[in-house]
Specification:
alpha+beta; Nucleotidyltransferase, domain 5; Dna Ligase, domain 1; nine-stranded mixed beta sheet
Length: 692
């Protein structure tokens, strides 16, 4: 029997599906249009192309790693399942009341995001548990059966069960879930005490509803994908990328699909971390621009910023508080509607607006020749000479430059009186400034600086725009990794198998009790290990334990590491010292004499992450031969200039100088005037900007 030696990664985006096949230091890639009607069809086509390119037998693949935005898109587009929510009597409207604050304080017409579950399907049940887990009102099974009767009449596909204080005592939720499963076996059930066992009622209910809303869609898709992989001869484990940067099993992903909402962007952040570690870059700005969105992430000391709350489907663009909150582990980044397929238009004030709506893959940008008529970022890049119409996607997908020019002239040039390529330039400058501004705000909100960072750019569109973005941000060095066009899929291959378990348990340090806490942490480790061992049997596991702490009376917590091993009476003193250090680092002071409290504990287990081998260095002292030339629009002179065209595989000797473009099958790197590029020892393309 042949020894499986290939690893396969698949990333589904809004426009393209990316595939990376890896064996040792060799990588084969493919990029196909996403088949939004049946995403698994695009996945299987991309896999077949990558296997054919490598001459590999499907039986030689040891694992398939997958990330997707299907759950995210279903929530944003409101195309999930018909979902109901069972709540404690008196709490029917908590998901609609949301927060007491207004995310736009002075907008009298402000509208909150509509809940995923309409009011008529939010059904009260008689029961009540205290914040300490005591049963104040026993579960009334008559009210439960009446609620299930209604679920049956309404023909719901999925149900979320979210009772008040269920994180402290999940018994009532568990009994109701079992009763629904018994009477309605075809209905999916999400328990808030499983998907989000934490305090804060609104976030918990919102997360449970979102999980239930996408569960039938994701379960059906993952089932069809597993079947397709088996039929194609890929009889190997299928692992799913999570929003927190780890891998999990199909079983866990099917139960908790909400943990997959940011799986694709998380893979990109992991790639940037691996490159930063390999090149010893301690301050990095990760820039991932695909066909639909752009994602920007700050990475310090080889670790990305992380968070426990994520907002999806913001009603007001980029405004915090205007989306649906999800309480899940995520890699923290800013995501904006700025991708190759982002549509541009002139608004009522005569301004060019780009995104957040995208042409996607169907019909796609005008230049794709698939029926798209509205101008997009990709159309502008074709008009400006940044993307070659003949060599796009390695020549497998010729573009219609005339259609791109016509769309931009009609929708942008004529309304604004911009002749020739100036409409395309305006579109490009707006989208680049949108991304630069998003990066500035993201950094400022976290007290970070951008000027001394290195920009690591990947995704199909990022290398096209990276140099101009670096100019706007005052960044002097840009790194374009190997196979940058499928960067998130490459990042999946470096992700560890991991899982995080969270439990809310209130405890003041002045009344610290190690016994019950050790028991709970033991249960959390057992739950996490049961998941991780399915994907990494026999691997040495790294445990990370966190306490979320605050001073008594405060409203938000800070993250404090728990000491390793069994906790004892000394742990309270250690925690107090760690909390003071963390609080002082964040806020510049501590509050003497004030007791601290812990609200929530988190435990994660991870198998070792795989390193991304950069491959043997290719050194040469000769200049790369130009493969041709093309007319490239120069922003500085506002006119076209002749630019040399190089193939990425030829750039391994003396630096090349802009204006120039470097082409490869999955993307194109643009070097404006004032930039030079050379190949790093790991195969990355290093762009440097001449000092002003």
């Amino acid at each position: 029997m042949p020894d499986p030696s290939y690893r396969l990664a698949v990333d589904i985006g809004g426009t393209f599906t990316d595939v990376a096949l890896q064996r040792d230091a060799q990588t084969w890639t493919s990029k196909v249009l996403t088949t939004s009607r049946a995403p698994e069809e695009g996945v299987m086509r991309g896999i077949a192309e990558a296997l054919a390119g490598a001459g590999a037998d499907p039986a030689h693949v040891s694992v398939v790693i997958h990330g997707t935005t299907l759950a995210t898109n279903a929530i944003i587009e409101r195309k999930g399942a018909k979902t109901a929510l069972l709540v404690t009597e008196g709490f029917r409207d908590s998901v609609e009341m949301a927060y007491e604050n207004r995310f736009e304080q002075y907008d009298i017409n402000v509208q909150r995001p509509a809940p995923l579950v309409p009011r008529r399907l939010r059904i009260p049940v008689t029961e009540r548990v205290s914040a300490h887990g005591e049963v104040l009102r026993p579960l009334d099974l008559h009210s439960v059966d009446a609620a299930i009767d209604r679920l049956e009449r309404e023909q719901v596909q999925s149900v979320a069960v979210g009772f008040i204080h269920c994180y402290a005592n999940p018994e009532h939720e568990q009994r109701v879930g079992a009763r629904i499963a018994e009477r309605l076996p075809g209905v999916y059930v999400t328990l808030a005490s499983e998907v989000c066992p934490e305090i804060r009622e609104y976030e918990r209910m919102s997360t449970a509803c979102a999980n239930a809303y996408v569960q039938p869609l994701m379960a059906g898709y993952l089932g069809r994908l597993e079947q397709g992989l088996q039929q194609a001869g890929l009889a190997c484990p299928l692992l799913l990328m999570t929003s927190g940067g780890g891998l999990t099993t199909v079983t866990t992903a099917t139960r908790h699909p909400i943990r997959l909402v940011e799986s694709g962007p998380a893979g990109g952040a992991i790639l940037a971390c691996a490159i930063a570690r390999r090149l010893d870059l301690r301050r990095v700005l990760s820039f991932d621009m695909g066909g639909t969105t752009a994602k920007i992430c700050l990475i310090d000391d080889f670790e990305p910023q992380s968070a426990r709350t994520f907002e999806i489907g913001r009603a007001h663009r980029f405004t915090r508080g205007s989306g649906l909150p999800l309480r899940i582990p995520v890699i923290e980044m800013v995501e904006i509607g700025a991708g190759g397929g982002s549509i541009a238009e002139v608004d009522a004030l005569g301004r060019i607006q780009v995104g957040p709506h995208s042409a996607g893959s169907e019909p796609g940008p005008a230049c794709y020749g698939r029926g798209g008529e509205r101008p997009t970022v990709t159309d502008a890049d074709v008009v400006l000479g940044r993307i070659g119409a003949a060599d796009f996607a390695g020549g497998s997908m010729p573009l219609d430059a005339a259609a791109a020019s016509a769309a931009i002239a009609r929708d942008l040039g004529e309304p604004l009186g911009l002749a020739g390529p100036l409409g395309a330039l305006g579109l490009s400058e707006v989208v680049d400034e949108n991304m630069a501004n998003a990066a500035r705000v993201h950094a400022i909100e976290r007290g970070k600086d951008l000027g001394d960072r290195t920009l690591i750019a990947f995704g199909g569109a990022a290398p096209v725009h990276a140099a101009r973005l670096a100019e706007k941000l005052g960044i002097g060095t840009v790194v374009i990794p190997r196979d940058a066009g499928v960067g998130s899929a490459i990042g999946f291959l470096a992700a560890p198998v991991s899982y995080e378990v969270v439990r809310s348990r209130y405890m003041r340090l002045s009344a610290f009790d190690a016994g019950p806490l050790n028991e709970m942490l033991g249960q959390m480790r057992a739950e996490a290990e049961a998941v991780v061992r399915l994907g990494a049997p026999g691997a040495a596991l790294v445990e990370r334990r966190i306490a979320y702490m605050r001073y008594v009376g405060q409203g938000h917590e800070v993250e404090v590491m728990l000491p390793p091993g069994e906790l004892d009476a000394r742990a309270a003193q250690i925690l107090a010292g760690s909390f003071d250090d963390t609080y002082a680092r964040l806020y510049g002071r501590t509050i003497p004499g004030m007791d601290a409290e812990v609200l929530t504990f988190a435990l994660s287990l991870a198998a070792p992450a795989r390193s991304l081998d950069g491959g043997p260095p290719t050194r040469s002292h000769t200049a790369a031969p130009a493969a041709g030339s093309r007319e490239l629009f120069d922003v500085a002179t506002a006119d076209y200039t002749s630019a040399a065209v190089y193939r990425r595989s030829d750039v391994h000797g003396e630096p090349i100088h802009g204006p120039a473009v470097v082409v490869e099958d999955q993307t194109t790197t643009v070097l404006p005037r004032g930039f030079q590029a050379h190949a790093g020892i790991d195969g990355a393309l290093i762009l440097r900007r001449a000092p002003l």
